[in-house]
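Researcher: We're teaching a course module on how sequence relates to structure. For the next exercise, students receive a sequence and then see the predicted structure as tokens, so they can try to spot secondary structure elements on their own. Here is the exercise chain.
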Amino acid sequence: MRESIGAIVFYERRSARGLEYLAQWNAGWKAFHFVGGHQRAEETSLNCAIRESNEELELAADQFQIDPIPIGRLQYRAFSQRAQTETTYQTTLFAGHLTEESQQLIERNPQNVWVTPAEIQQGQTEAGQLISPTSALLLQKTGRLPCVREGNVLTIGVTGHRDLHPDQIPDLKVRLHNLFDDAEQIADGRSLHLLSPLAAGADQLVAEMGLARECRLIAPLPFRLDQYAQDFADQELHQFHRLLEESQEWFSLPEASETDEKTSKPGYSKYAAVGRYVVDHSDLLIALWDGQRTHKRGGTEATLQYALREKLNRSSLFKIGLFPVTRLQ
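Model: And here is the predicted structure for the students to work with:
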């Protein structure tokens, strides 16, 4: 199958219509699409994003800014209009920023339009012009639009504590191994995907076992990489980066609209958001929980409560594999 490696930049703004993304007319696709394109052999993904922004938007280097740390890496299949064949894409995602002056410059070109998530989902602009289906796919795969579940996939999610007692790890591995056996039987030929935010402890343990069982590892992250890295000790961070490299896809979830002002610890709302994402996109949730009711927002208990309320009580197909654990004191 044809393969394509490239970079995409999400240029966002807030207007009277709410959140909007910058899209540009793609003559080959005969539709609007995000800024970006094919990565040349000598380029890094960041250099590709910068070059494509420079060429497509006709802006000088000082008229736009791209955050150097990616917000995601995706793999997906789509039909290439240009090549007229099914293509496997590996795309690195970046966040871009435009000054007000730059926005005014690009808006003079009718090849550039600002589109809302709803328009992207519907596949056409307010004026009725086509938007590439791949644009919607990218937003769906990164939690920015509701995701259409794949029928040929069984997705396993994980939630659990970071500070698992090391003495119980061997026994946990045996029980998790048995659960993966059960999941393969339930899948009945379907592919196994594993959603893990790759936090220390439970997330990393289950991710390791999933990779050993040849699951497709997908890592939704609560923060951008540089922010998330601050939550790990040195050895945990090394493990996180190794698993991130071994994952087939990873992405940072979009900024939450809610604030953390009412929580005792900054960032709890983002942990709550990634917990909800894992539950919403899973058929089977692995939960490594100590059974303690702390009522912490964004913790394992909160994710389990959400799963019970929103999934288990509403779908006979959703399952929870609960593993009692002991935590370090």
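Model: If you want an answer key for the exercise: Residues 13 and 19 are 6 Å apart (CA to CA). Residues 2-141 form a domain with the Nucleoside Triphosphate Pyrophosphohydrolase fold (CATH 3.90.79.10).
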